[in-house]
What does this fold into?
Amino acid sequence: MSDDKKLPSHKAFAVENFTKDDKEKSHWTEIGAAWAHKDGKGFDLNIKLVPFSGRIVLRENTTEN
It folds into this structure.
């Protein structure tokens, strides 16, 4: 297996919405990563987060995030 196969396919973010200067904004905090299953039908998700109530977003792992 090559080294890039060990890297997560996606990163996980906790997203908190808020209003600032009458504009809707969101704050994204990286909280973990996901690795795609070989069959493409699921993920192993590793989350580093204390109890949280809100939205979790999975995004493809790129050099930009």
Q: What stands out?
A: The chain is about 5% helix and 55% strand. The helical segments are 3-6.
